[in-house]
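Lab notebook, bench 4. Still working through the backlog of constructs that have no structural model yet. Next entry is a single chain of 322 residues. Request: give me the structure tokens for it.
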Amino acid sequence: MTVDSRNRGYESSENGASRGRRGAPRNHQHTGDRRGSRDWEERGSRSGGGRDYRDRDRDRRGERRGGDKPARPRNDRNQRDSFVGPQRHGYREERINRRVNEPAIPADVDPRELDPTVRQELRSLAKDNADMTAKHLIMAASLLDEDPQKALAHARAAKDRAGRVPVARETNGIAAYHAGEWKEAIAELRAARRMSGGPGLVAVLADAERGLGRPAKALEVASEIDGQDLEPETRAELAIVVAGAHLDLQQPDDAVLALEPETGKTDAPEVTRMRVMYAYGDVLEHVGRTEEAVEWFRRAAEMDTEEVLDASDRIAALTAEE
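Model written out:
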């Protein structure tokens, strides 16, 4: 299976033409928004709360609110060491070196640009560290589309500074996913899920397993979650990834069954429903239901006012064969 280093998704990449979770984009315009408001993140619901796929439920189970730090004696070295856990020889030096080598941040990046709900999660950190972490998160957000590797460097820097803050681990995972670093993405997203509870970024986790060439594992990850506990956008995105895993396994009929329930639902955001329509057209084509595939590509094209998908091209190719 050929691995696409960007958003993968539902289509089998056997033919080297993986179109990605959002369909096949004609182009992708970077908005230049640096606020880090999570619009850039393909996040999954942690607890089925009312936030959309980009803005996850931020119920951080066990996380202190209002910036309070965990109470512990200031001078009890043994207790402090048990709190941070054992550290291998040279660990402190490695952290210092990583900070010295952190990617540069433009002077005009203001940590206050970070979305307030995200910044709230950094209040457990010392102010200077919180500000630097916020700047790295902002840079990761702004660079994700145009330079995933640089975005990942900033996300790693944020994680090094705030390794116990779920949003830092999630950001590292998302950036790794976009950069095609599947193992790192899985490790970081699972860490964030352990810290936060709930289903976490299940669609991204499953898709990263596909990136490693493990579609069966992707289906296993998806099966761990009860779809009824997911917010609509996450539920739809997961269905798209599950369909893609079935295509990878040469199970096109199962891919159709994975997406079919989503085609009758209207509770997900319009852009997500558009991607579902495109994906459904694609799997229908795989099972030879060409006329129906054309119809679903047409529906996707009608919703795609910005022409970010290649649905029109797919229609032209299928109708030319008639």
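Notes after review: Residues 108 and 240 are 39 Å apart (CA to CA). Residues 1-86 have pLDDT under 50 and may be disordered. Flag for follow-up if needed.
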